[in-house]
Structures are given as C-alpha cells and as structure tokens.
Amino acid sequence: MATFGTLSDRLTETFRNLRTKGKLSAADVDGTVREIRRALLDADVALVVVKDFTAKVRERALGDEVSKALNPAQQVVQIVNEELVQILGGAQRRLEFAKTPPTVIMLAGLQGSGKTTFAGKLAKQLEKDGHTPLLVAADLQRPNAVNQLQVVAEQAGATIYAPEPGNGVGDPVKVSRDGVEHARRQQHDVVIIDTAGRLGVDAELMKQASDIRKATNPDEVLFVIDAMIGQDAVNTAKAFQEGVDFTGVVLSKLDGDARGGAALSVASVTGRPIIFASTGEGLDDLEPFYPDRMASRILD
Ligand code: GDP
Predict the structure, then answer these.
(1) CA 185, 190, 195: angle at the middle one, nearest 5?
(2) Phi, psi at residue 220, to the nearest 5°?
(3) Which of 80-94, 97-111, 189-203, 211-225 comes out lowest in average pLDDT?
(4) Alpha-carbon torsion 178, 181, 183, 189, what sign?
(5) Which of 57, 90, 204, 267 sees the fewest Cβ atoms within 10 Å?
(6) What number is the ipTM of this complex?
(7) Can you say whether the dihedral through the CA atoms of 172, 173, 176, 177 is positive or negative?
(8) Burial class (CB in 10 A: 0-12, 13-18, 19+), 281
(9) Which value, to the nearest 10 degrees, does the dihedral of the CA atoms of residues 205, 142, 222, 52 take?
(10) Which positions in this protein are listed as binding GTP (predicted)?
(11) Do residues 161 and 133 touch, judged by C-beta distance below 8 A?
C-alpha cells in the first residue's frame, strides 16, 4: 500500500538503529520513541493519537517485558506492533447483518470522499456473496449524483431505487424510507443508502443525514473518509460522529500516496472500527480492513 511508504521506511530505519544495541538504556528507549513520534506526526497522524501511542509504547518499553527479553530491540518492535493494532481498532470487525432482512446500510461522508464508488463496490461484493442488494439514491443534492449511482449500480449488476432520477429535487428522507420499503417488498436482503455530501461539514447536511438515520433505522452507518484528507480527518470524523453517530468507517483512496495519517487516527479518535479499505477506482478495489495486517504492512 503506497500510502504508508514513507512512514514505513522511517520506522524501519528507527528499528534498524535500535537493533544495533544489546541491552536498551532509558536513553535508547526515549530516542526511539522520539523518532517514532516524529515519523507519525510527519505522516499526518493526529497529535492526540501520537501522544497516547508514544506514551504507551514508552511505558511498556521501559518495563520488565523489554528488560527481561532475550532480544530487547525485537521486543520493542513487537510492542509498537501491538499498540499500532490497538490504534487501528484491535480485532477485525465485519459488516453486521440484520437478523430480519433487509439489512440497512447508510453511507455518510464529505462530497468526493468515495461514497458512491464504495456503494457500487459493496453492492458488487455482496452480490458475489449471494446477497441481493438494492442501492438507494438519496443524494438529491448534486444533479449528477443519481446518474452516477445508476452507472455504478449497472457495473455492479445491482438494482437501484431512484424515483426521481437526475432532476435534483425530492425529499431524500422520503426516498430513503421508501427505498427500504421497496427492498422489503421486492425481497432485497440488503439496502445501501447513498446520501448527499458537501464539500465541508455543514449543519444542514448533518441534519439531513441524521433525519435519514432516524427514518430508516440502519443496521450500519458507514462513514466514508478519504485517506488523503490529512490533518482534517480528525475534525471531520468527529463532526460526523456527533452528527450521525456512525457505526463503522470506510477508508477510501488507500491506494494514493498521501501520508496516510487519516487511516491511523480515525478509529482511535472516534472509537469506531474501520470495516473496509477502498483501494482504487475499480469496483473490485475493496478489501476488508484487518488492523493486524495493516500494522504489519506499516512495520514491514
Ligand atoms: P462521493 O462524492 O463521496 O460519492 O465520491 P465518489 O464516489 O464520486 O468518488 C470521488 C472520486 O474519487 C471519483 O473520481 C472516484 O473514482 C474516486 N475514488 C473513489 N474511491 C477511490 C479509491 O479507493 N481510490 C482512488 N484512487 N479513487 C477513488
């Protein structure tokens, strides 16, 4: 994953220096922690996350598990790995399905974050797994949004519910509610609701998303965030958490070569798990998110 190239290189270098030492002094640990801190900050990881992370690593690295280890440097790397898995959310979390179909999945996020693309990717993956997803076009803000979802639905081989295609008017809350009802009648077992995104967080958008949430009672509300968004990630994620209270995160554009801090901050800051990683413009570029694999990639 290109996103973490620089961070990964920096940490590898830090650990290479550490490995030249036998027993580690407090100064060795502090030096290492300082380098890790700089590398994370340079990768755009949020300051609160960096502080918390480095404090935990430092405390453990100065403790018995390292001083008594056969290979102290290796033990420090192991600690960094474990703490990295923790900030990425700990255990893997899969999509949750309703006991009684349809499972309702609502998407939220800024415009351009990759929601519509993700809707298509998810629909395609669900189809492959034997589900019968219905895509609901509740982004009636952007004139072209419904058409775009239509194209994506076609590519994914999924059905779309859009009563007023392309004309930009209509009530997104009603469309969402009717969409879920339509799915129930037509026996679609999953409903994916694509909602409107603005360029920045705004109150009207949040109210609309919150109203859609109330009207459709989703099993999952997935917040789609562009991994390239950098330091804005934390504030955007917090605003969406307050506004719609999402249940999980989709990291999009992880194929880009940005510094990747969003990926490392968002789960930790919101306490919500990252469920998917979106890694390209094609509909097959979607992977479940595994915190442990991501940590290993970063530390490789
Ligand atoms: P929306 O406004 O949130 O619905 O965002 P879109 O789904 O329209 O995506 C915005 C742009 O990002 C489009 O040009 C997509 O092709 C592109 N895009 C979406 N997901 C990814 C991804 O994972 N990787 C890359 N490289 N581009 C993506």
Answers:
(1) 100
(2) -135, 135
(3) 189-203
(4) positive
(5) 204
(6) 0.99
(7) negative
(8) exposed
(9) -60
(10) 109-116, 194-198, 252-255
(11) no
Residue nearest atom 19 in ligand 1 by C-alpha distance? 114
What residues form DSSP beta bridges with 136? 161, 193
Average pLDDT (70-78) is: 94
pTM for this entry: 0.93
Q: Which two tokens stand for residue 36?
A: 């890790």
3 has a pLDDT exceeding 90: no
Of 117, 284, 289, best ligand 1 pocket probe by most atoms within 8 Å of the beta carbon: 117
Between strands 220-226 and 190-195, the pairing is unpaired
What's the token pair of residue 92? Answer: 């893997």
The alpha carbon of 112 and the centre of ligand 1 are apart by a number of angstroms equal to: 6
**pLDDT score for 186:** 96
Residue 274 pairs with which residues in a beta bridge? Answer: 249
Q: Quick check: 281 pLDDT over 90?
A: yes
- Residue pLDDT, tens place only, 234-256: 899 999 999 999 999 999 998 87
